[in-house]
Amino acid sequence: MRVLIAPDSYKGTLTSVAVARALAEGWRRARPRDEIRLAPLADGGEGTLVAIEAAGGWRRAEAPARDPLGRPILAPWLVREDGTAAVVEMAAASGLSRLAADERDAARATSAGTGDLLRAALDAGIHDVVLGIGGSATTDGAAGLLAALGARVADDLASVDLGGLDRRLAELHLRVACDVTNPLLGPDGAAAVYGPQKGAAPDDVPVLDARLARWADALEAATGRRERLTLGAGAAGGVGFGLLCLTDRLASMELRPGIELVMGAAGFDAALAAADLVLTGEGRIDAQTAFGKTALGVARRAQAAGVPCIAVGGSVTPEGAAVLAAAGARAVGASEPPLPLAEAIAAGAAPLVARGERLAREIR
User: Fold this and answer.
1) Residue pair 68/79 in contact by the 8 Å Cβ criterion
2) What is the C-alpha to C-alpha distance for residues 351 and 359, in angstroms, rounded to an integer?
3) Helix axes 258-266, 294-305, angle to 10 degrees
């Protein structure tokens, strides 16, 4: 058999590469003659660079950038081997993972480092960029990102001058991996929904929302576009909004589901066409799996290609299993019986190795 193993990471436990390798190790114990191809995936958040790099055809680069608190760092990004395209991961420069828990500051955190990485891609002569915006630490509406690209932004976000914006943006084709549909403002907006996980106390949320409203007034006036209500405007603390407002100043700009963009960059469809079976998975397969998560994206592609699909979850709820069953995939847990979260984390890759072996022995 030809088996394609294409999981997401088990967040906070194992990278997508580690998950894929563990399942493959178990599978080979039972069926050593099968041809196995690893295609680890991600949804546009942390781990996107690792997943796409593992697919081959890309090389890793580093550029000077700023972390969410403005401290200088070297941040990674990817360049296609032929130098024509790049992948930038917002989490690499402006992510929560760059901060200790006691450093999280939703009001102070800046997206400037992501702008630094986009500028590095432009400096390299690249005009085709995939930008994953998951895992951000920021709630600045992309003000820092735009400032890094030449805009002049007032400290209170009440005004912006785009006259100095990098002219090379007019040649940039930007595809943004975005898996949320929140607007910029209000009870479903960037501050209210995501501010607390970025360090905002309850009293901070209305202050952040008001600041984003001032920024929306200023940026919409400067660009002539009204994007505050657009689905996805609230993504990454309003980075979705800032980039949507720039649409007319770019060669092209679109928000797309993260798993679709990562699959495209990783050459997933070509690998799927040569497979007899697909194994996918993610840390938790539950009701949220229905909202564009990796396992569902893989299951749908496999169903369309007529290839059987099995999804392995760190945990699996009946709702999650039903979502995947509707896409023609079978969902199984990594452990039998399921382990408590702390024990599952401590067990590392071992349950996935065992599950891979059990699945291989079941195959006829």
Assistant:
1) no
2) 12
3) 60
Within 8 A by CB and 6+ apart from 167, the residues are: none
CB 140 within 8 A of CB 185: no
CATH (residue range 2-39+267-362): 3.40.50.10350
Q: Work out whether strand 128-132 and strand 173-177 pair parallel, antiparallel, or are unpaired.
A: parallel
CA distance 76 to 90: 10
Q: How crowded is residue 170: how many other Cβ atoms within 10 Å of its Cβ? A: 12
CA atoms of 21 and 357, how far apart (whole Å)? 12
pLDDT in tens, 330-339: 999 998 777 7
pTM, whole model, 2 decimals? 0.88
pLDDT digits (tens, 9 = 90+) for 227-254: 999 999 999 999 999 999 999 999 999 9
Q: Tokens 């996918």 map to which residue?
A: 280
Average pLDDT over residues 276-282: 95
- The CATH architecture to which 48-259 belongs is Alpha-Beta Complex (3.90)
C-alpha distance across the termini of the chain, in Å? 10
Residue ranges of domains in the chain: 2-39+267-362, 48-259
Confidence of residue 266 (pLDDT cuts 50, 70, 90): confident
The dihedral through the CA atoms of 235, 237, 238, 243 has a sign that is negative
Q: What digits encode the pLDDT tens for the residues 303-313?
A: 999 999 999 99
Q: Which residue has the tokens 């990004």?
A: 77
Give the integer Cα–Cα distance in Å for 30 and 114: 45
